From TrEMBL:
Protein's UniProt name: Dihydrofolate reductase
Enzyme Commission number(s): 1.5.1.3
The organism's taxonomic lineage, starting at the top: Bacteria, Pseudomonadati, Bacteroidota, Flavobacteriia, Flavobacteriales
Keyword Ubl conjugation: no
GO biological process, one term: one-carbon metabolic process
Known function: Key enzyme in folate metabolism. Catalyzes an essential reaction for de novo glycine and purine synthesis, and for DNA precursor synthesis.
GO cellular component, one term: cytosol
The keyword Magnesium belongs to this UniProt entry's keyword annotation: no
Catalytic activity: (6S)-5,6,7,8-tetrahydrofolate + NADP(+) = 7,8-dihydrofolate + NADPH + H(+)
Biological or metabolic pathway of the protein: Cofactor biosynthesis; tetrahydrofolate biosynthesis; 5,6,7,8-tetrahydrofolate from 7,8-dihydrofolate: step 1/1
Amino acid sequence: MLTIIAAAAENNALGKDNQLVWHLPDDFKRFKSLTSGHYIIMGRKTFESFPKPLPNRTHVIITRQANYEVPEGCVVVSSLQEAIAFCPKEEEVFVIGGGQIYQQAIDLVDKIDLTRVHTTVEADAFFPEINTQKWELVFEEFHSKDEKHNYDFTFLTYIKK
């Protein structure tokens, strides 16, 4: 199964200057619990936004740069199709960003795990629109802002109709 996992504002903003524009510890925990032990597909800029590779995950990095150097345990490919072909078919594989990769992947995936952050922010990377004719919302869990979270947010899971 191929799954997109993302956090996006109400205007579909993902981030600015290769950084997230919010800090939501419960979203990070959910991301970690869902993706740990799995292959994660990402663009080069998303990979470069991490201080180091995320533990207990196989990183599949898409870049057009020849001879792109990555740490051990990471794989470099030149396209989303090559990334998908590299990953095991019998496991859930996660597409984790960024905006261009999500745009390419949205019609290819089986599921979307989206954290909808209830704010509108300025951004330079955006999540694609979810076409409700093609996607069915099967899970929704609202979280209020609190001392650790500056924004209300909702965990949403969509499956392809």
